[in-house]
TrEMBL record:
Pfam families: DUF397. InterPro entries: DUF397. Residues 18-68 form the DUF397 domain. This is DUF397 domain-containing protein.
Amino acid sequence: MTSPGHKAEPAAPQLDQARWHTSSFSNGGEQCVQVAHLPGGHTAIRDSKAPTHGHLRYTARTWTAFCNTTHQDPPGSQPSA
C-alpha cells in the first residue's frame, strides 16, 4: 500500500526464466561474469562461480552507460579525458 502522491515501485523482473550468458572477457573461464537481459530492459550480472550468491540488477539506462564507458575505456587503459 502506498500513501497519496507516492507510486509503488514496479515489480522486479523474475530471474527464473533468465538466460545467462558468459562474458567474452572472462579470461578463459577463470574470472567469469554472466549477464542476463531481463524483461523491461533490465540487465542482471552475477559471478558464474557463485551463481546462488546473488546478482546485481541494472536499468537499461544504467547498463547502457556502463557498456558505453567500458567500450570507450577498456579495463587496464587510462580513462579518456
